[in-house]
Design goal:
Structural class of chain A: mainly alpha
Distance between the termini of chain A: 6 Å
Order of helices and strands of chain D: HHHHHHHHHH
Order of helices and strands of chain A: HHHHHH
Radius of gyration of chain A: 27 Å
Strand content of chain D: under 5%
Structural class of chain D: mainly alpha
Largest sheet of chain D: none
Number of helices of chain A: 6
Oligomer: heterotetramer
Number of helices of chain D: 10
Helix content of chain A: over 70%
Chains: A mainly alpha (211), B alpha/beta (278), C alpha/beta (261), D mainly alpha (209)
Largest interface: A-D, 116 and 125 residues
Number of strands of chain D: 0
Shape of chain A: extended
C-alpha cells in the first residue's frame, strides 16, 4: 500500500493518527479529555456499525426469504422482536420465551459438541504412544499422561487434598502453573504484536518508514 | 521511602517509564531492521503442507473464516494471506466468510495483500465472499448442514443460487478443508460442529494468546495444522518464500520481548535480594 | 450400534453417564445428604482480607468482570458464583464494620447484586446500614476499566475480590489493585485471564474452583450434588487415562479404539 | 413452560446429533430460527446504551457533553450506513460511512484493544515474582516461552527455542487439557441444572424478579 495522495484519504490518515495518540494518552499520561473524546467516538461508531451490519444480516436471512414467499420466517421474526419486551418492566415475562429458545440451542449444541474434542480426543491423544522411538518422545508421553491425571485429580472438588491425594494434587497444581506460564508468554506475543502494528502505523504516517 | 536502596527502586520503577520505553522499543527496529532468521516449527509446517499437499486438489473448495477484526490484523492477516495464496496456487476454490462485523475491511485487506493471486481469479467461480454472520455455534452447526440458510446471499447481495461456486457448496460434505482464524470462539465451533461431528479437515490460524489452548487440539489431530500469532505468520511467509508484514514485525517483537524479560529479571533480582535481607 | 451415528457412540454414553451421576447425587442432596467442598485457600482468606480492611480503615472492593451476561451459557455461571461469594464477603464486612463497594458492569446482574447485599445486611441484623450507593454500575468495558481504576486510586481499598467472568480488563484492574498494594483474591473460569489473575492476586480460585466456592457458600444442594457427580466422572477419566496409558505404552490400542467409537 | 421450551430445543439438538448422520429438518429449522432470533436480539444492548446516553444528555448529568458527542457520532454513522445499505445493499457504498469505517473506526479499533500491551508489560514486571514454587514455575515457563516466541531467543542461546518449544508443545499440554476437560464438564453440569430448572438467574431479564 502506498502513502495516500487524495485529500480525503490524507485527512483520514491523520485523523486516525491523532485518535491513536488520544487513546494512548491514557496509559502514557493519565485519564484526560482527549482520551474520553476518542473513547466515546469509538463506542458510538462501533455500535452503529454493529447495528447496520446486523440489520443487513436480518434482512438477508429472514426478511428477504419472507418476502420471497417463505412465510414460516414470520415465526422467528416475531419471537425475535419479542425479546425487546425485556426493556418494558410490565411485559418482561414475554422475553423469557425467545431466551428459552436461544438457551436451548446453546446448551444442546454445547453439550453435544464438547465431549468429543475436549474429553475423548484429549484422552486418546494422551494414551496413544509416540511413533518416535527416541527417549525424549517417551519421556514426553509419560509427562503428559502423569500431568493430565494429576491435574484432573487437582480439580476434584469434594475431596480434601490430604492423605493419598496430597501428592498427586500438589503435582497437578504445578503442571497447571506451567500451563499458565506458557499461556502468559503467548499472550505477551499477542498483545505486543498488536502494539507493534500501531508503532508501525505511527511511523508510517510520519513518513519515517514506507507504508 | 527516603531510605530506598537500588533494590527497592528496581522493584518500583514508575510504570509510565516502562510504557514509554516499550513504545520506543517497538518503534526503533522498524527504522533499523535486523531481519534475524526465523525458524519454522512443526505445527506451522503441518499447516502449510496441509494447504499445499495431498489435502487439496484443483477444484476443491476451502472455507476460510475471518474470526478477527482490525484489532488483530497484525496477528492473523499474514497467515491468512499466505494460506489464500497457497490455496489459489493449488487451484482450489475459496469461500470467505466472517464473524466480525468489520469483516468487509478484513476481506479488502486480504485482497490487497494477495492482489497478484486474486488477479487471475474470477469472483463467483474461483472465490466468493459471503460476508458477516452471527448466531454463534448454532450458525456454524447450521452452516455444516444447510449453508444456504445461513447465507441466502453473498456479501454483495447476489443470491447464492446465482453464484456458480455456491452451487457446489451446500454443507460440510462439499468442503475439503476449513481454515479458521480467530480472536474468539468461532474456531472452537468449527472444532465441535464440523471437525468433531463430521471429521472435516480443520486448521487454526490463531492469535498467540490462544496458542496454548489450541495446541492440545493440534496434538490430538483435531487441527491438521496450527499457526500461532504473528510468529506463525512470519513462519508461513518463510515457507511460501515471500516475506511480508509478519516478517517485518519480527524485529520489533524481538526487541520488546527482550525488554519484558529484562524487566522481569530486574524486578526479581530486587525482590530476591530484599527477601534475603529480610 | 447402527442406531447411534458411528463415531458418536462414546459421546452418547459419556453424556448419559454424566447426567446419571449428577442426577443421582443431586437426588441424594435433596434427601439431606450434604456434600462438602474441599478447603479452598482463597475462600479461607476472605476473613483475613476483611480483617485487613478493618485494621486499615479502608473499604473492600468486589467486582465480577464484564464477560458474564447471565444468559450466556459459559459466562453466566461465573457471575452467579461471584454473587454467592459477594454474599459471604458482605456478611463478613458487616460483622467487621467495614465498607464494601460492589463495582458491577453487568446490567442484568444488578438486581441480583443489590438483593444479595441487602439480604446479607439483613441477615447480620443491620438492614438500615445498607445503602444502594455501595453498588456502582458502569456501562461498557472502557468505562468499567477507567471507573474501576479511578475508584482504586481514590478510595484505596485494602482488599479486592476479583471473581467472575473477566475479559481483558482483568489484567488492567488487577494491576491497578497491585499498584495500591491491596490484598487481592481472584477467581475466573476464563482460561485466557487466569495467568494474569494468578500473577497479580494473593489467592486464586482456578477454573471450576470458582463454581465450587459459589456452591459451598450458597449451600445449594443441586449445585453441590452436580459437583459431586462431576467428581465421579473425573475419577472415571483418571481411571481410563491411567489404564489406557499402560495399555497404550504396550502398544495395545483397545481403549483408544473404544473411545473413538 | 419456559423450561419445557429450553428442554425441547436441547433434546432436538441431541436427537439430531446422535441419531441422524445427516441433518434433520426439524432440528435444522429450529436452529435456523435461533440464529435469526439471536441476530434480532443483538440490538438490545445498543438500545440500552443509547437510552442511557439520551437520559444523560437530557438530564445534564456529569460529563453529559460526552453523551451528546456519542449520540451525534452514532446517528451519523447509523444513518449513513443504512442509507448505503438501502440504496445498493452494501453499507460501505455510502461515502461518508465508508470514510468513517476505513479511517476512524480502523484506527480506533486497532488502537483500543492494543492498549493492554502496556498493562501486560507492567503486570509482568510487578507481579511475575518467584514468591514460591508455583509462581517460580510459572515465571520460568513464561520467560522461556516469551524468548522462544521471538526469533532473537535463538541468537541469545541456542537452547532457548528448544526449551521454549518444550514448554509450548509438551509442558503446557496437561494443564491446558485439564482446562478443556473441566470446562466441558462444567458446561454439561450447568446445562443439566438449567434444564431441570435448578438455576435461578438464568432467565434474568425475563425471569422472576
Amino acid at each position: 500500500m502506498a502513502y495516500p495522495t487524495g485529500t480525503f484519504e490524507l485527512i483520514g490518515l491523520w485523523i486516525g493518527w491523532l485518535l491513536m495518540l488520544m487513546i494512548y494518552s491514557y496509559p502514557l499520561y493519565k485519564e484526560n479529555l482527549a482520551y474520553r473524546f476518542a473513547e466515546h467516538i469509538f463506542i458510538a461508531i462501533f455500535l452503529a456499525i454493529n447495528l447496520v451490519v446486523n440489520f443487513g444480516n436480518v434482512m438477508k436471512i429472514c426478511i428477504t426469504p419472507l418476502l420471497g414467499g417463505d412465510f414460516l420466517m414470520i415465526v422467528p421474526l416475531i419471537i425475535g422482536i419479542s425479546i425487546y419486551t425485556m426493556l418494558m418492566p410490565n411485559y418482561r415475562w414475554v422475553s423469557r420465551y425467545p431466551v428459552a429458545i436461544l438457551v436451548g440451542a446453546g446448551f444442546g449444541l454445547g453439550m453435544r459438541g464438547v465431549i468429543k474434542p475436549s474429553i475423548l480426543d484429549a484422552i486418546v491423544s494422551t494414551i496413544t504412544r509416540p511413533t518416535d522411538i527416541g527417549a525424549m518422545a517417551w519421556i514426553n508421553f509419560l509427562y503428559i499422561a502423569v500431568g493430565l491425571i494429576c491435574s484432573v485429580l487437582y480439580f476434584l472438588l469434594t475431596y480434601e487434598h490430604t492423605g493419598t491425594l496430597q501428592t498427586p494434587t500438589r503435582i497437578g497444581r504445578l503442571f497447571i502453573m506451567i500451563g499458565l506460564g506458557a499461556y502468559f508468554g503467548n499472550t505477551v506475543l499477542f498483545r505486543f504484536t498488536m502494539l507493534t502494528g500501531r508503532a508501525q502505523f505511527f511511523l508510517q504516517v510520519l513518513k519515517i518508514i514506507p507504508m | 521511602m527516603s531510605g530506598q536502596n537500588i533494590f527497592d527502586k528496581l522493584q518500583n520503577i514508575d510504570r509510565k517509564v516502562f510504557y514509554w520505553v516499550l513504545f520506543i522499543t517497538l518503534c526503533v527496529p522498524f527504522m533499523f531492521p535486523l531481519a534475524l532468521p526465523i525458524k519454522v516449527v512443526k505445527n506451522t509446517s503441518d499447516l502449510y503442507d496441509g494447504v499445499t499437499g495431498a489435502n487439496i486438489e484443483p477444484g476443491d473448495i476451502a472455507l476460510i473464516n475471518f474470526g478477527y477484526g482490525v484489532s488483530a490484523w497484525s496477528e492473523c492477516a499474514p497467515g491468512i494471506a499466505v494460506c489464500t495464496k497457497a490455496l489459489f496456487r493449488e487451484g482450489a476454490r475459496i469461500v470467505f466468510m466472517g464473524s466480525h462485523y468489520d469483516v468487509e475491511l478484513t476481506y479488502n485487506k486480504l485482497r490487497s495483500d494477495a492482489a497478484a493471486d486474486f488477479a487471475g481469479k474470477t469472483y463467483g467461480e474461483d472465490y466468493v465472499f459471503l460476508g458477516y454472520f452471527t448466531g454463534g455455534e448454532s450458525a456454524i452447526a447450521q452452516l455444516a448442514t444447510d449453508a444456504w440458510t445461513v447465507y441466502p446471499e453473498d456479501h454483495f447481495r447476489t443470491k447464492v443460487s446465482d453464484i456458480p461456486l455456491m452451487k457446489d457448496f451446500h454443507g460440510w460434505e462439499d468442503i475439503a478443508l476449513v481454515l479458521s482464524s480467530d480472536t474468539g470462539d468461532v474456531g472452537s465451533y468449527f472444532l465441535r460442529q464440523w471437525q468433531g461431528a463430521h471429521g472435516t479437515l480443520l486448521a487454526e490460524i490463531g492469535i498467540a494468546m490462544n496458542g496454548s489452548t489450541d495446541y492440545p487440539y493440534y496434538l490430538a489431530g483435531n487441527y491438521f495444522g496450527l499457526s500461532i500469532g504473528s510468529r506463525g505468520g512470519a513462519e508461513l511467509e518463510v515457507l511460501i518464500g515471500e516475506p511480508g508484514e509478519a516478517t517485518t514485525s519480527m524485529d520489533s517483537i524481538n526487541a520488546s520481548h527482550i525488554l519484558i524479560v529484562i524487566a522481569v529479571i530486574l524486578a526479581n533480582v530486587g525482590y530476591i535480594v530484599q527477601r534475603r535481607k529480610a | 450400534m447402527a442406531i447411534i451415528v458411528t463415531g458418536r457412540v462414546m459421546t452418547f454414553i459419556l453424556l448419559i453417564l454424566t447426567f446419571a451421576a449428577m442426577y443421582y447425587y443431586m437426588n441424594l442432596g435433596k434427601k439431606g445428604k450434604i456434600f462438602k467442598i474441599r478447603t479452598l485457600p482463597a475462600i479461607q482468606a476472605i476473613p483475613e482480607a476483611v480483617g485487613r480492611a478493618a485494621e486499615m480503615g479502608q473499604p473492600v472492593m468486589w467486582t465480577p468482570g464484564i464477560a458474564g451476561g447471565l444468559n450466556d451459557a459459559t459466562q453466566g455461571p461465573q457471575t452467579l458464583a461471584a454473587i454467592s461469594i459477594l454474599e459471604y464477603v458482605t456478611e463478613e464486612c458487616v460483622k467487621a464494620g467495614v465498607k464494601i463497594a460492589a463495582l458491577c458492569p453487568l446490567p442484568d446482574a444488578l438486581p441480583l447484586v443489590e438483593e444479595t447485599m441487602r439480604t446479607a445486611y439483613t441477615a447480620q441484623g443491620k438492614p438500615e446500614e445498607f445503602n444502594d450507593e455501595f453498588i456502582r454500575f458502569f456501562s461498557g468495558q472502557s468505562a468499567y476499566m477507567t471507573g474501576t481504576l479511578g475508584y482504586l486510586q481514590r478510595e484505596r481499598p485494602a482488599s479486592t475480590i476479583l471473581v467472575g467472568g473477566f475479559y481483558y480488563e482483568a489484567v488492567i484492574i488487577a494491576e491497578g489493585g497491585n499498584t495500591i498494594g491491596a490484598m487481592q483474591i481472584g477467581g475466573t473460569n476464563n482460561t485466557h485471564q487466569m495467568p494474569f489473575l494468578v500473577a497479580t492476586c494473593d489467592y486464586m480460585l482456578l477454573a471450576e474452583e470458582l463454581y465450587a466456592a459459589g456452591a459451598a457458600i450458597s449451600g445449594n444442594p443441586d449445585a453441590l450434588g452436580s459437583i459431586k457427580g462431576e467428581d465421579m466422572i473425573k475419577f472415571l477419566i483418571v481411571a481410563i487415562t491411567g489404564v489406557g496409558f499402560l495399555l497404550g505404552a504396550a502398544g495395545i490400542t483397545f481403549i483408544a479404539d473404544l473411545l473413538g467409537m | 413452560m419456559v423450561f419445557a421450551i429450553t428442554g425441547i430445543v436441547t433434546v432436538l439438538m441431541f436427537v439430531e446429533y446422535f441419531f441422524f448422520p445427516q441433518d434433520w429438518i426439524v432440528a435444522s429449522t429450529v436452529r435456523n430460527w435461533s440464529v435469526i432470533i439471536l441476530n434480532i436480539s443483538l440490538g438490545l444492548g445498543a438500545v440500552r446504551l443509547i437510552m442511557q446516553h439520551v437520559m444523560g444528555t437530557q438530564r445534564r448529568r456529569e460529563n453529559w457533553q460526552f453523551s451528546a458527542l456519542f449520540l451525534v457520532a452514532f446517528v451519523i454513522m447509523l444513518f449513513t450506513g443504512l442509507a448505503g445499505y438501502l440504496s445498493t445493499g452494501v453499507a460501505t457504498s455510502n461515502s461518508v460511512y465508508n470514510w468513517l469505517f476505513n479511517h476512524v473506526y480502523t484506527a480506533l479499533g486497532a488502537t483500543t484493544y492494543a492498549i493492554t500491551g502496556f498493562y501486560i508489560f507492567s503486570a509482568a514486571y510487578r507481579a511475575f515474582r518467584a514468591r514460591n514454587v508455583d509462581a517460580s514455575l510459572m515465571l520460568i515457563a513464561g520467560c522461556f516461552v516469551i524468548l522462544s516466541n521471538a526469533p532473537v531467543g535463538e541468537v541469545i542461546w541456542s537452547g532457548i527455542p528448544a526449551i521454549g518449544e518444550w514448554f509450548r508443545f509438551v509442558g503446557q499440554v496437561p494443564g491446558m487439557r485439564v482446562f478443556g476437560i473441566v470446562g466441558a464438564l462444567g458446561t454439561i453440569a450447568y446445562g443439566f441444572r438449567a434444564l431441570l430448572g435448578k438455576e435461578r438467574g438464568f432467565y434474568a431479564g425475563g425471569a422472576e424478579d
